[in-house]
Amino acid sequence: MIRPEIREGLHRWREVIAAGAIAVFGLWLLGKGWLLGPIGALLLALGAALALNARRRMRFAGSGDGLGVVSVDEGQISYLAPEIGGFVSIAELVELRLLSVQGRRMWRLRQSDGQAILIPVDAAGADKLFDAFAALPGMDVSRLLAAKPDTVVWARHLRVLT
User: Lowest CB count within 10 Å: 94, 120, 124, 130, which one?
Assistant: First the structure.
């Protein structure tokens, strides 16, 4: 009944649409008197914040049709593909870099022990990396979203104890 490209577009924008619905409901409550007005103001602010975060996540997400599968579970990022893959601990990350390898954009995640994995931006589940990356200490989300290939997006500065 719904054309596939419209269904795909609605699916892609679903979080932003839901957050917008919360904000519109809050706006409607805002004019309903002294009791519901403050609740409406809170819902409006919540909807706006959720919409901003959903839009950022949407900008970060790739197509999902690339090689391999990404999962983020209990402080560990795993990438599994037919011939390559690996696991890194989020707590042990020291560098996050966006690379261009043979014309494909890939995240390079390096741990403190030197182990590194490459994850294609368009791998299935790569959209889950946004929350993991945004939680890194000192991460600038705007820098993450505006990252260009062959740049360091984030690095943990290790202190040498003497």
Answer: 94
